[in-house]
Amino acid sequence: MRSLYSLQMVVMINLAVAVLCADKYSRSDFPPGFVFGSGTSAYQVEGAASEDGRTPSIWDTFTHAGYANGATGDIAADHYHKYKEDVKLMAEMGLDAYRFSISWSRLIPNGRGPVNPKGLEFYNNLIDELISHGILPHVTLNNYDLPQALEDEYGGWIDRRIVKDFTGYADVCFREFGDRVSYWTTVNEPNVFAIGGYDQGISPPKHCSPPFGTNCTRGNSSSEPYIAVHNILLAHASAARLYREKYQGKQQGFIGLSIFAIGAVPSTNSTEDIMATQRMMDFYIGWIANPLVFGDYPDTMKKFVGSRMPSFTNHESELVRGSFDFLGVIHYSTCNIRDSPGSLELKQRDFNMDIAASISNYDDFFTASEWPILPWGLQGVLEYLKQAYGNPPIYILENGQRTPRNSTLEDTSRVKYLQAYIGSVLDAIRNGSDTRGYFVWSFLDVFELLDGYESGYGLYYVDLDDPDLKRYPKLSRDWYSHFLNGGSVSPDAVIELQKNFSALSQGHFFQ
Ligand SMILES: *[C@@H]1O[C@H](CO)[C@@H](O)[C@H](O)[C@H]1NC(C)=O
Ligand SMILES: *[C@@H]1O[C@H](CO)[C@@H](O)[C@H](O)[C@H]1NC(C)=O
Ligand SMILES: *[C@@H]1O[C@H](CO)[C@@H](O)[C@H](O)[C@H]1NC(C)=O
Ligand SMILES: *[C@@H]1O[C@H](CO)[C@@H](O)[C@H](O)[C@H]1NC(C)=O
Ligand SMILES: *[C@@H]1O[C@H](CO)[C@@H](O)[C@H](O)[C@H]1NC(C)=O
Ligand SMILES: *[C@@H]1O[C@H](CO)[C@@H](O)[C@H](O)[C@H]1NC(C)=O
């Protein structure tokens, strides 16, 4: 029964390839109340890393050890000092909403215990500034930057004690900001946080074990990714229960968790590749969505990971199941999947080997300087969530185009990407998906997780050579603003916007 159902799911994703995405539309084609915004995250944008009582997070430790090619978020875009200027730019652009995250170690420097008044003041000011400009705050509680104090004390996410400390931190945020913040995402993309941070060792807290990562000094790639996600799910569920019992009645907000939702299509139509693609969906999306919707991990994961897969007690399963008002989707691209059964025979395996599938267009996916434009992939993910998980309310919390970070402001590939992907969201909605909002990653060029300041996703360019870190609008900013203000978008509109953009000599910022 299960495998037949799985096959249907994948065939459905495959069919989405043939669908033509809307290429002429305007925001009035979206349902009333649909929210369009843009986002950043604390460590990636704030800077002021050791100012006003903030203590290091695991991300500071990671960058200061040189693991991001020497780049750090010490200054980043200096949003901590420039938030007023930035909110003004958001308002001028016409954003409905701004997605940001709170730095836990700025608000509660020891991870638990006393609240830092300066941290509290900063987030209160930012939220007030947004609201006075008519911009809705969407807040993520933790975006990779766990307080180093908790990592040092007991190992952070791989210890069960994190559940209590995360809930205590969430309590402070709901209490202090919940009168003005209605949208809460607990933890950002726990699936890739665990794969990067506990399997491959390419992101904080850089845990891994040979032969799976490079220069591993501590960790266990075979077991820790699963333990970390397990504790994140329990921490999320505990915070969600607290919110529902103590705050939601009065504050009327919504709480969710985000998933890095990779698009996946089989490399061939063989049954093996189709089943491998379903495993990919189970390991990436099901890892998080199955517990939230059904109260347990997918059967494929339990079977392939075996005794290394943590299990939920009945009580925990009840706590996790249904512990969300929406799912956050983070999506950039789609990969081709090939069956790779050989790896199951190895005694020692990590997450990637457990899937027993490989990505055949690996270079496109991980090393290309720009994402290939495959909008049907996002439509397929939204359709998949609709069919496999009972059509939950969805916010697309991140989607955007990576380009080399340089002074070229005429970012036509980003405009093409956004136009195609937002069109695919419209197509998914027209076919019944309950998607309620879309956020471009990112509002301005930030410190990027994997390559520091080498690439940028911003609608604004930030000039790092200028001590004042001046912001310059890119063509994509004008495109998004045109759309947000009700303009119709089509290939013709892009040409006109481009003409206007170069006429203003904005094409290159120092002209
Ligand atoms: C691993 O460590 C060596 C020696 O410290 C260093 O030269 C190399 O760049 C490191 N590799 C990575 C991927 O960090
Ligand atoms: C990792 O954990 C697994 C399961 O607990 C264990 O069998 C294995 O020996 C550990 N590997 C390392 C490198 O510690
Ligand atoms: C798989 O079959 C579908 C439907 O017949 C077709 O559209 C698609 O191109 C095929 N995919 C591959 C990779 O052969
Ligand atoms: C900047 O990157 C773009 C690709 O997005 C490239 O076309 C352009 O030539 C680069 N410009 C400079 C000044 O390096
Ligand atoms: C649209 O939704 C229907 C019903 O859920 C589904 O059968 C169909 O495959 C979907 N179409 C696309 C293009 O996703
Ligand atoms: C381009 O500029 C002209 C003249 O200012 C203006 O009327 C037009 O609306 C602009 N086009 C777009 C797509 O913004």
From TrEMBL:
GO terms for biological process: carbohydrate metabolic process. SUPFAM superfamilies: (Trans)glycosidases. It holds the Pfam family Glyco_hydro_1. Its EC number is 3.2.1.21. Keywords: Glycoprotein, Glycosidase, Hydrolase, Signal. PANTHER family: BETA-GLUCOSIDASE 11, GLYCOSYL HYDROLASE. It comes from Herrania umbratica. It is an enzyme of class 3 (hydrolase). Belongs to the glycosyl hydrolase 1 family. InterPro entries: GH, GH_1_N_CS, Glyco_hydro_1. It catalyses: Hydrolysis of terminal, non-reducing beta-D-glucosyl residues with release of beta-D-glucose. GO terms for molecular function: beta-glucosidase activity. The keyword Signal applies. This is beta-glucosidase. Residues 1-18 form the signal peptide.
